[in-house]
Structure to design on (124 residues):
């Protein structure tokens, strides 16, 4: 019998790991005074894991969860294409709204249950 690679079982496991990481990230943000505005916000450019506010900042946060560093650090997975999608999503989110806010793009790494919050991980 051959092995099946890329099976839906692996994808389900990755989704479960990602969901756990996002849950930890939300708890972390709330503990640090952030108000969660949206989770898993779907838009024409993809999905934003967390949109939160803190003071005058609106934060678009990408959560990367890893069980090992076999494929590099979690933040290394936030490539140029993903950053561009987040920037476009932020523009879409604010379209037609009058808001006086600082927009920030953060990455939250969840690795072995530990949180590494990278504030202003990239700029528009």
């Amino acid at each position: 019998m051959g092995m099946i690679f890329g099976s839906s079982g692996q994808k389900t496991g990755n989704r479960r790991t990602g969901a756990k990481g996002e849950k930890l990230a939300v708890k972390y943000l709330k503990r640090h005074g952030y108000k969660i505005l949206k989770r898993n916000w779907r838009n024409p450019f993809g999905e934003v894991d967390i949109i939160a506010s803190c003071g005058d900042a609106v934060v678009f946060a990408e959560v990367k969860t890893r069980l090992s560093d076999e494929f590099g650090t979690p933040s290394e997975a936030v490539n140029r294409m993903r950053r561009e999608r987040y920037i476009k999503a932020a523009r879409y989110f604010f379209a037609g709204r009058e808001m006086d806010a600082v927009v920030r793009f953060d990455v939250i790494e969840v690795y072995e249950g530990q949180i590494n919050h990278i504030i202003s991980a990239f700029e528009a």
